[in-house]
Each structure stands twice: as C-alpha cells, then as structure tokens.
User: Fold these one by one.
Assistant:
Number 1:
Amino acid sequence: MSKKTSEAIKPQSDPDTYIYNPNIAAEELGLPLDLILEFVGDFIAKAEEFKDELYRSIEEDDFESASILSDKLLGVAKNLMIEDAVASMKTVKESKDKIVLVTHTDQFYEVIEKLKNIKLISVDEEILLQEERLKTLEDSYAIDPLKWADDYTKTMDELVTLYDKQGRLDKAIAIHEKSLAIHKKSLALYEVLYKKDPEKCTMDYISSLRKTAIAYRRVNCFNEANALDEQRLAILQELYQIDPKKWESEYLKHLTSLAISFKRQNRLDEAIALQEKKNVIYEEFYKTDSKWMMPYTMELSTLSDLFKRQERFDEAIAPQEKKIVIYEECAIADQDYVRTQSDLADLYTKVNRQNEAIALYEKVLPVLEELYEADPKKLVYTYSIVLNALADAYYNQKSFNKAIPLQEKSLRIHEELYKTDPEHWTVVYARVQNLLGVFYVEQERFDEAIPLYEKSLAFIEELYKKDSENWVLRYSMALNNLGYSYKCVNCLDEAITLQEKSLNILEELYKTEPEKCAEYYLKALTDLGKMHYDQKHFDETMLLEEKRLEVLEYLYKIDPQEKYSYIDVLQGLATTKAKNTNYTEAVQLFSKYFEIIDFHQKDEIIWFIYPFVKWYQCEQRLGNSIAIDDLDELALKLIALYKEKLAEKYQEEIVKLHDGYMTLRDSEDAFDREKYEIFVKIFLN
C-alpha cells in the first residue's frame, strides 16, 4: 500500500498512540488474543534487550551481527504481523549502508515505543476503517490490478475476519468469493508473464499461486487449493535443487504451510512426507552450524506429533530420541529437554517398552525435581505428570512399594495447588486421589483407600451435577471404586447402595448410547451381581445376569469374534434357570448357545457335553419328544466330529468325564441323578 493511501484511511488519534490490531495475528496463528498481547510484551522486552548491541554493531560496521539480531526480531514481528517493524528489520537485515541501518533502526524503535501504548479498537470501529480502506483500494485496483491486487484482497480478508466475529456470514461469503475471483485473475496474468520470462517473474507467480490457494480454501474448494499448492511445491523444489542457498527459505516456508494444510485436512501421510523433507534440510543446517539446533529440534517434535496423531508410536519414537541426542551434544538440560524425555518415556509405554520407559522416567525425575524446586509454579504441571507416569509404570509392574510414595508425593503437591486455586485444580486433584486409592486397594490397604475414594467421589459428584454428559462415566467409576472397597471391609449394605446408584446411571445412558457405555454397564452388572450372590440374594442375581446377557448379546452382534463371554453367560444363566425349574427359558438359552458356538474350533469336548446334558434334561422334563429326537441326532453328529478331532484320545476324555459324573449317580437329588443317566445313555451306550 502506498503512503498516500495509508494516510488517507488512518484514524485521527493521539500521536503517541499506536494503532495495531492483534486480532489479525490471533486469527492467523489460531491463538487467544490475551496470548498475542503477551507475545507483544515479550517482543518489546526482546527489542529493548537487543537495542544497545544492535546500535553498537552498526557503529562498529559489524554488519553480520546486526543482520543476525535483526533477523531474530524480524521473525517475531512477522508472526505478530507488526508490519512497520517488519519493514524496518527487513532493511536492517539486508543492508550494509550505515546511514540506512541507523535510519531504519531508529524507525523500528519508534514503533517499539508506540507499541507500549497500543490502542485496542472495537470490532465495529475496525469494520468502519476496513470498509473505508476497501473503497479507496477498489479505485486503485481498477487502474492497476497487478499493483494493487495484494493490498485489495488483504483488506478483504481482514474485513471477512471481522464480519465472521459479528456473525455476518452473508457479507463474509460474498467478499470471499470476490477475493477469489481477483486472485484467479491475477494468477492468470502472472502465469502468462512467468511463461514469457520465468527468471524475472518466478517470485510473483509462486506468490500468486499461494494466495489463490488460500482464497480457494476460504470458500471450501480444497481440491483446487491443493492442486495449486502442489504446483507451487514442484516449482520451488526444482529451484531449490538448482540453487539451495537462494531458495531454501521459500521452499521450507511452503513445505511448512502445505504440511499444515494437509494436517488440517487429516491427510496425515502427505503431511508426514513433507515434514520428513523439511527435517532432512534442517538436519543439514544443524550439521553445519549449531545455531540451527532449536529450529531442528522443533521440526523433530512436529514429525513425532504427526506420527502420534496416526497412533504410529514406534515411528514417533525416533525423532524424539534424535532430539534428546542433540540436546545432550549441546549440553542442554533445560525444561524442554526434560519434557522431551518425559514424552519419549510415554511413547515407550505406548509400545510396551516398559523397562525403557521406567529407566527414562527415573533419569529425568531428579533433574525435574531440581528444576521444580527452583521454579515450582512453572514446572508443577510437568513434574506432576512425570510423578504420575512413573508411579503408573511401577503399578503396571506390580512394584507397589515404589509406585505409592510417588503417588503420595503427587497428592501432596495437588492438595496445595487445590487450596490456592480450587476451580482450576479440582479435576486433577480428584484424579490423583482416585489413583492413589487404586494403588492402596492393590495392597489391600482399604482403610487408607476409602477416605481417598470418598473425597474423590465428592468432587466428581459435584462435577457430574454441573456437566453430567462429560462426567457420567467417571462418576460411575468413582461409585464403583468406593463400593468395591466397602465390600472388601464387609460394609456390604453401603457397597450395594453405591453399586446400585452407579448401575442406575449407566442403565439410563445405555438406553440412549449403548456403544459409549456398554463395557462400563457390563462391569457394573457383574460387580453388583457378585455382591448380591454373596448376600444370597439369588432373585436379584438372576435379574442382573439376564441384563448382563442382553449387553453381551449386543456386543456379540457388533463383533461376533468377541463371543466367548456371551457363550459363558448363556450357559451359566441357562444352568441357573434349569435349577430353578424354568425349563422353557433354559431350553431357549441352550438352543442359542449351540447355534452360536462353532465346535470345529473347540478342541475341548466339555464345550459340547456339559451344556448338552443339561439341555437334554430340560427337554426331557418338558416332555418334548420331538426335540429329544433332534438332540439325539445332534449328539451323533458332534460325537463323530470329536472322534475325528481327538482320535484315540476321545475315549480317554469320555472316561474322565464319566468319573466326574459318577459323583452324581448316588446323589439324593433326582435332578443330579438324571444328569448321570443322560450322560451314560448318550456317551457310553
């Protein structure tokens, strides 16, 4: 934009007040406004820190140092979109003319002084400014499209962002479409110029490709955008191979933007391929100059994170291991080094390399403790994560004596944090209490587990009341944990009350979202069923088993491979029904059992004989002669199958089973004697 145009639309204000819109940077970077303002403050502080050294470098004709310092400030200014600062530092970075350097450094520090008094204007005020600017630029664009296209479309983009904030979507869409049309027109013009004179017009053409791709994305035309991005990448890759030094910056920038675009579209394989190309380049930079250590390690983290998003944890490990080697080569033992070790240990855990995970956690913990003691506020989150992770790793190895002291330390830390800021720390505090309770239960230290479970439950219950949808499963688990502990200290009435409460909650959820909570509901049914059985509440136990069977049938229909729990419950419930003389219901369950099970896959003959004898007995009691004839035929088929499968061992198995049934032959219970008689009739005669 020309100086004249800029001044024509600039608002009248106090000359000491600087108009800067951090909302644009917030939108571009996807960060909260508060954080952008914090970054601006950090940028001002960094500029002040560099000030004396920058002027001294210029005074002493040390242009290399001036270029390095200005480059650092330039990168931040670009990210924060402080355009006046970008222009000044770009000139300082590239110039070797002392007068030019001093002039632009002075201008830069004038901007810094003005930034200290940023005036934040309202969205309504900003819209009026941008609309006025758009009218001015529209006339300029009509006269010279190529010269004014960038400023014109950039103002459109800023106006769209503001309209979005006010929910004025029709206006935003219309401007997006107009912006796309302009970009397409510019691209067509630049393409003609590029074909005529590639050397002169390359930068303009690839820049137009980028801007047009962005415009396509804004109207959700992702295929068109991707095609232009890939076209641009092909040009830059070829240029980079011809002259790496000249084109590396632009090539890397495009690799980054395209990788981010693929990531947002969930095209992670393509994002990873581009990131790997970037990492090769940054590795070479690092090998030639250690100043590239930080950028290279950041790129390694990005690659690892992409692998993690695909749950390719084995591949995510290598970049993190490389990052640690680099830190150790450079003798760096700061917070990021510690976090990287913690992240790597977590990856080792995910791929079942538990011993390596524990060794790494044990290595990092003393370093982290020292850093935590020096700055508790800053390191508390990482420190508590490592404490909990190492405790969990010890727990998984049944090393409870090592796990518990770490979890107790974590609890003390979170107790203090909760006291200082209850709203922020409630969730984590409740979780740590619950985890320590679990550890105590493993050592049967129920008297210590119960108070923790009670406190954790009280917190979680309040969270559940405020947000039942997100807390329902954790609330039910907290009820189950405390209920189980009460059961273990023979407080069965209290245990049953809690388990019933949990079951009722899960039952309601299961009706509407069976997939979400089937496993939790099944566990609650099983736990409560065992408690009622221990109390000899057989009617309640039967009812719960029937519900349990319904859930298992639902899971079986989703995944027939997971059928054996369903089969076990089918047989168990059928047996119980038969004992209670509910023969008709028992027959239905036994019939379903034999319908589902594939005896070709079951070498153990007991899968056939035990339930078959019971089924036969029920049909006999009901006087179903036709069904008995069908069972006689089924028995012959399955006996033939097992004789073929077991060969000479078949008779050995029958003899073993006969010895077991012999205990029923002389039973006082006629029902038991019948089982023996059926076994002899079918399998011995």
Number 2:
Amino acid sequence: MKQNDLLVTQQKYLFALNFYRQINNIVKFMGDDSELYNFLKLTIDINEIKAYSLLDDPNSNVDLTLIIRSFSNLDYGYQEEVVQSTVNSLLGSYCTIIEVNSLDENSICAVDKFLNKKLNLENSQLYEAEINIGDILFVRLIEINGHTFVLSIIETINEEIETLFLEKVDKFFKNKGIIVKQNKNIKNLIPLLKNSLIDIFFLFSISYKEFIELEDIEVLNKNREALLRKMFHEKDRMIVDKFLQYARVKYNIDAEEFFYYISALYRSQFEDTEASYSTFSDYEFGKVLENAARDGFVYTKVELYRTISHLKYFYEYALRYDEKYKKAADELTQCLNSFFYYNDIMENSLNNFYFDEDISDNIPDDMLIELLDYYDNFLEFFTLYNVKVSKNSKEITPYFINLIADELNLKPIKEVKTKRQIHYPLIDLFFNFSLAKNIIQIKEDSNAADLTERINHFLSFEPSEQYAIFIHSIFNENFLLSFLKPSTVKKLGYTIQSIAQLLKEKNTFIILDEINFNKDNLYIIELISNLNIINFENNIIKKTFLSDTLIDYYIKSSKKAKVIELTI
C-alpha cells in the first residue's frame, strides 16, 4: 500500500472504528423488550445487536448517511467523500468466524469459516486488541479501499463452541438451499449473512448455551467426586454409595438430588473449616442448621425440609454399620421435629433469597411481570453509569434519581424542587431490596453504588421465583422497617388490607372516589399496582391475575410473625 493510500485508508478505518464503538450510545434499539433480545444479550454485546439493526437488518429504514454525517460534524468534520465512503464500507461489513493461521506486524492470514475462503487482513494497531495465532474469533469485518480490517471482535471462542456453532450455521444455510463449499460466488453469500445475522446471533447463543451445559455436566461430575472426598471420609463414602442405591428404592431420592442438598449445607457451613459430615461428633446439627438457615443456604421451605430429612435418612442408614452415627441421626430427628423453627429463621433473614413456592407455582411461565421489567431497567443503570450515593443519607443522589425516574417513567409522590429517592417509592424499594440482598454494594471510598456478583445469583432464578422473592420481602415487616417509617409501613399494610377486603366483597372493581381514601396516600396504591397486586388505571382498581393468589397466600400466612397481615 502506498504511503498516501495507507494514511487515507487508516484514517477512514479509524473513523469507522470510532463510530462503530459508539453505536450503543447513538442508536435507540426498539426491540429491547422482546424475548429474543433478552436471550441474545446474555451472550452478544448490546453494541453488536444494535449494529445489526443499523447495518444489516433488511427491514431497517434508518438513514445511515445522516447519522454518520452528524457524527462526523461533532468530532471530525470530514468531507462528504469520507462520510459516504465510510457509509458504504459499514453497510458492506459482515460478521463471520475466522481462524488466525499466521500474522506479522502488518497482516493477518486467516480462514473465513462461514464463507470457506482464505483472508488477508490488515493487522492495524488502531484496533488495540491482541490477536494471536490459533485464535478462533467471531468478528465483524470491514473492507476499506480494497483492504479488509477487523471492525469488532464479538467473541473469542474455543474449538468446542466453534464446532457446535458451525454445524448449526451450515444446517441453516442448507435449509435455504445453499451449500457454501460448492458456492463459487462468495460475494452473493455476504448479503445472506447480513440479512440473516440475527438468526446467526441466535445460533451462536444456542451453541454457547449448549457448550456451557455440556461443560457444566463434565465439571459437575468432577466436582462432585472432589466434593464428596471433602464431605465424607473414605469409610463414609462407601456407605454413601450403598445408601444412594437404597434411597432410590426406599425414598425415591436420586444421587443428584441428594448431593444438591447436602452440598448446599456443606458449602454454607463447612467448606472453609476442617469440619465435614464425618466429623459430626465435633458439632451439633441444630446449631449448624440455625446458622445455615440464617445465611439462606437454600431458598424454600421444601428445600430446607429435604436437606434435613435426606441427611437424617443417611445417618439412620449408616447405623447399620456403626452405632457412632446415632448422635447425628438423633440430632437430625430433633431438627426435623423443630422444622418450623429453622424455617422461621430462614423466612425472616433479610439478605437471603427465600421465596414461597405457593406464589411461584401459581405464575404461568409465559406471564409478563411488569415489576421485573422495571427492576431490570433499574439495574441496567448501574451497568451504564457510575451511580453515586449521598454520603449521609445512603440514598441515590438527586441527579441519578431523576435519570432513573425518567427511564422508568415514574412520577414523584409530590412536586418538590429537589427530588430525592423517597419521592419515588418504587426506586426506593428497588434500591433497598438490592442493598438487603447484597445485589448492590456502596463503595465507602467513592460513594459509588456498584452491582455485585449476587446479581447473577438473583437472575439465575426463574422469573416467577424472582417475583416471589420480591413479594416475600415486601410483606416482611423487618425489611420494610429497614428503610421506611413505621407509620408508612402501617399505611401500606392497611391499604392492602382494605383493598383486598373490598375486591373480595365486590369481586369486580373499585372506583377510588367511592372509598374513604386520603389522596395524599395515592402513591401507595400506585406502588401496589407496580407490584402486580392490583391494576390501577383511571382511578379504578381491578384485580390482576395474581390478586387472589397473593391474598389467599397471606391469609394462610397471616399468623406468622413479622409479616403484614391481610385478614380478609
């Protein structure tokens, strides 16, 4: 490449690269509430999905020239020829899998696995990402002035994912009547790749998920053996093997279920100590389960019960071999007799993810839960911004509160000059729920609120379970009193009680003007509506699909301490 051509080409590439990296900030993606989008963003960066909508989507009506011209005018002031050339190059860019065979300081020799052809790519220092021989990369390539560059590395993958992915893409092409290896006109395939990119993203996500599942099974088997050696001494491991055969027939307990429960308790209480299930003479199971329940080592009363009962069954079986197991068997029998004591501890602990299956089991898998959509959007702010917290009040600062409220389309409970977190009950609930569950932590040195690894733990639950976790917290008086005034908690409980009573009596709807209700407390009804407990619109209160489920659940639970009673 001649020096002048090199400079011009590199200049255009840098312009295209900088624009591409800003797509997430430039483009408002309209499909971000779809199930497909929510699935794809688990493995595909949002910037790449937005790039598809801008550069590849055959149904897009976006004027890319206008966008890039505006982008150029902001920071670069390039001439129209550069703008138009960049537009053409970006519209011609496409995504593929490449395997790097060799490289030097100027060029990369690779193979395009989708199009089955050799590539000679520019090894530009402008990209600022390390590429090595043998790398398998899911990339977007761009051609500028006859030279091909890497515009984006979507993902670096291993051979196993590559095999799964390419098999699916190959089958996808065949279903369209195209066999890539027999197709000599490569250029005709690039429009197909671009038009089908959202499908290819989906195939990649499926392939990645399959690999993780296969890897998890392999790792699980290895980890189980390693964990078994830690949990039991050699002699006891022999008894475990025999017990599992017995338990499958006697109690219908399979090995996976048994290990799930006993490993949950072990990791919670023993993993960082010298203790194990073979050293039971050194501790009391009652104390162990009390601490574990407080830590939330499992999430439902059924799981708690099965943990205790499965261990009890094991030690009772082990008594066939040695009387020394009687201590553990007797203690676990006593724990089972005192089950509700441990369950109450677990229910009332604020930082765990306890939920009641009576709620989650009544929610259909395909039901859209508005509360969770609000919460997802709330959490997304903490990935996009360095959200600050007021040093004294431990509330999100007014600047960020206004941003979040605008995004969630929330109105304050009253008009004030400086709107604080307490003026938006739903944000106040979300933030304090996140703090209590350690989903968000406040950095003392910077007063920044950051997401923790616990967000992945919470998101691992099914949506119905996430909702049930929220509901349990909302009706937990200890949780509410951790950030609300006692008078507010009392008003919340009274309002839910009153509305539940009226809805049960009328069984249709309530017109707000017909009931004795202080309009200053209207925000409480709006909050209850946000929680999907009722539907409130145009001053009319109606039941939701969940109303009866929640009311019946809390009638049954009304005698439990520290829960707002709904006596109907």
